[in-house]
Amino acid sequence: MQRELLEKQLREQKIELVRAMYVGPDGITRGKAFRPDDLEMILESGIGLTQAQMSVTVFDHLPPLSQYQPVGEVRIRPDVDTFQVLPYLPGHARMLADVETREGAAWELCPRNLLKNFLNKLSAQGMQMQAAFENEFTLLEQTESGWEPVDQLNCFSSAAMDLASPFILPLISALEQQGIKVEKYYPEAGPGQQEIPIRHQAGLLAADQQVIFKETVRGVAQANGYRVSFMPKISPAFAGNGCHIHFSLWNENQNLFYDPTGEFLLSQTARQFMGGILKHLPALMALTAPTTNSYKRFVERCWSSSYTCWGPDNREATVRAASGFQGQEAATINLEYRPCDPTCNPYLALSALICAGLDGIENQLDPGDPLLTDPALLTSEEQHSLGLNAYPLDLESALSALEQNSVLLSGFGESRINDYLTMKRAEIALIQSLGDDGERQAYEFRF
Ligand code: GLU
Ligand code: MG
């Protein structure tokens, strides 16, 4: 955004605080706010942050074994192109930020910078990514017994739409005022569960949009007396909150996932990209299903997917090859990665998909036969003969797979992965030490 336009908005909208926000490897959107008078200086030199802040757990606990300790500083450097006035919070504006060294180089743990690097790798091969994160979340209202889901009604129910309407309409308005195009709205299967699919965006903007989406959902809820939870599995009895990632690769105006002669109209590029995802799957999940609670979501026949496989419009598959709109397949065919939830850091999640997918393309990996049925309806012999593997049962299993995955280790850098493993393992230990309530404390409202 042009500087003059930005300053005009600051004045006219009477902005008192501008937030400079980054998403840490723990998935929490954090940052510092500054006074508009300091804009020039902050854009120039950023805001100080202790190096170790990128290594803390969701409980703000710095693992003693972390490579970064509270000595040394990096800078939160806001990206002026992401400036937005917050439509739901008068007097506040926001910019998304990179984290850089004092000298202005990318900080080695900055997730946003990692994604920029992977997008550059794609574009060096003539490919651009379009992606959209498809969040589910639970809308809660205050009752005498605490915060409870706003409804106990049905998936896509008109009655549930009525109940959520005082929240949904201001939410749609706030999203669209920030340039996010809302495509649909519907109540989902769980109590109080909502879903608002949004238009895909190119590259970095897709991940930025995910941050803005969640910030706006939470902010509009609070402004209207509600709360929201992005926790993947609030209760074993409820449907999980997923965050499927829809994506496609493009060269200019050509959808590289589409081939009119391919099976299910899928190109070799789409098949190989899926081959990479399926090959690296348990490791990928350490980054796309990154909390202890994430693994409770993977229940058979809950449409969260729970076996490593792909299939055309198969909502129990890891990758659903989405057939797109009838007659417009060339423009709308895309892949939908399902073992992702809204506690992920979107920059790390997209980076992980690209890292695995590029490996698939480079090594011409085959994704195997498509699964045309619900894997839960197969006998274990049938599952075995089709090469289906059940997902890891817990976060530690996914972390161990990540630790041993040479493609992700070299793509992300060993230092970043080691820091992540240390942080996540400390998070697991803390949650376990808190007993039954640990997960709820960790994840219910922090994301
Ligand atoms: N709630 C499901 C999940 O955990 C997804 C339902 C759907 O297909 O939208 O991923
Ligand atoms: Mg859904």
UniProtKB/TrEMBL annotation:
GS catalytic domain boundaries: 111-447
Top-rank lineage group of the source organism: Bacteria
Pfam families (alphabetical): Gln-synt_C (PF00120), Gln-synt_N_2 (PF16952)
GO BP of this protein: glutamine biosynthetic process
Residues spanning the membrane: none
Keywords: ATP-binding, Ligase, Nucleotide-binding
Record GO terms (molecular function): ATP binding; glutamine synthetase activity
Family statement drawn from the similarity comment of this UniProt entry: Belongs to the glutamine synthetase family.
Protein name: Putative glutamine synthetase 2
Organism: Gimesia algae
